[in-house]
Design brief:
single chain, about 325 residues, alpha/beta, Rossmann fold, 2 domains, two-stranded antiparallel ribbon, binds NADP nicotinamide-adenine-dinucleotide phosphate
Length: about 325
């Protein structure tokens, strides 16, 4: 005689049953409606609970706001990236480093890309669990070589995070050709070259691209207009690629952070003595009253790339303490 379903499986919310049905339908298994099928799905969930539980650090049972327990949710997302391969560009510093670490914590195989060998060696020493490749994202041939080497070594590529970029602050009058060109090359061309090089592997894995934009990508940025223009371009690329690549099963989204305290500020042309005042002025523009941390951005990059997020594409997610509302 069949054993009764566990309490958690018995209370599996209807939304989870729908999700299970959709997941099965996506691999060609259309299930008829009816209580018997629902009971079987509940039992299936129950059968696999012990195995799922063995791999998790978190408690298995999750309760939603109405007190319903289920065998999915946060705990089911733990280590969702095991067996998956992630490339993070600009991973030797700031937000990119936090993103690479966050994916590694989820047990992804993480490749960090950076352009300076000495910075890569220092990053390798800090994070021996991450693999490192060198390329300037603005150089298409170098990018292709690096991405090809990753796919050769790891056999697949599931997630590409286009984080590498630079930001400079200058009024129109003081914006030199070199400064404008470098930002477009790293931020816009670089994002494009990486996505292009990764396409065949992402097609094979039905993977995902996460581009890192900025609040400046959709807000005016007096004194930083060209940087803002590069990020507006990234948001535009994100939406266009989302439509273009949807038929191939590739999701494309962007995260748009507000001001985050990173070494990036020291790479601007702003004098070191003026940086505290600049950061203060950014804090005042953030309704939550402070700059963000790299980890606060990384959290959402990982969430957006989660394989369970199957129906979100072309989204620009603001992670900015409310800055984009002002
Ligand atoms: N910090 C913020 O307030 C903020 C806000 C919104 C968006 N963002 C975006 O977040 C991303 C990361 O910035 P961050 O603040 O973390 O700055 P960061 O600490 O300077 O990190 C930027 C990373 O990108 C790398 N990079 C730059 N140009 C490259 C190129 N041509 N090829 C390969 N790598 C390159 C840098 O390498 P090097 O170490 O060699 O310079 C570094 O690893 C950028 O796209 C930035 O626009 C930042």
């Amino acid at each position: 005689m069949a054993s009764p379903a566990s309490p958690a499986a018995e209370r599996l919310p209807p939304s989870e049953l729908t999700h299970l049905r959709e997941t099965l339908a996506s691999v060609g298994l259309q299930l008829p409606d009816g209580p018997e099928i629902e009971q079987r799905l509940r039992r299936l969930c129950q059968m696999y609970e012990p195995y799922l539980g063995a791999e998790r650090d978190e408690p298995r049972e999750v309760t939603d706001s109405r007190g319903n327990a289920s065998c999915s949710g946060e705990a089911a997302m733990t280590h969702a990236f095991e067996g998956r391969v992630v490339l993070v560009t600009g991973a030797n510093s700031g937000i990119g480093e936090a993103i690479a670490v966050a994916f590694a914590k989820e047990r992804a195989t993480v490749f960090g890309l950076g352009r300076r060998q000495e910075a890569l060696e220092a990053a390798r020493a800090r994070h021996p669990g991450i693999r490192w490749v060198r390329a300037d994202v603005a150089e298409a041939a170098e990018v292709k070589g690096a991405v090809d080497s990753i796919v050769r070594e790891a056999g697949r590529l599931d997630v590409v995070v286009n984080n590498a970029g630079s930001f400079k602050f200058a009024p129109l009058e003081g914006s030199g050709e070199e400064m404008i060109r470098r930002q477009f090359e790293a931020n816009v061309y670089g994002t494009t070259f990486v996505a292009q090089a990764a396409l065949p592997a992402l097609r094979a894995s039905r993977g995902t691209i996460i581009n890192v934009s900025s609040a400046a990508g959709h807000k005016p940025a007096p004194g930083g207009a060209h940087y803002a223009a590069t990020k507006a371009a990234i948001e535009s690329l994100t939406r266009s690629w989302a439509l273009e690549l949807a038929p191939q099963g590739i999701r494309v989204n962007a995260i748009a952070p507000g001001p985050v305290d990173t070494p990036g500020f020291e790479k601007t042309d702003v004098r070191a003595a003026d940086l505290p005042a600049l950061k203060e002025s950014f804090k005042k523009q953030v309704p939550l009253g402070r700059m963000g941390t790299p980890a606060e951005v990384a959290h959402w990059v990982v969430a957006m790339a989660d394989p369970a997020v199957t129906w979100v594409t072309g989204e620009i997610l603001f992670v900015d303490g409310g800055m984009s509302l002002t």
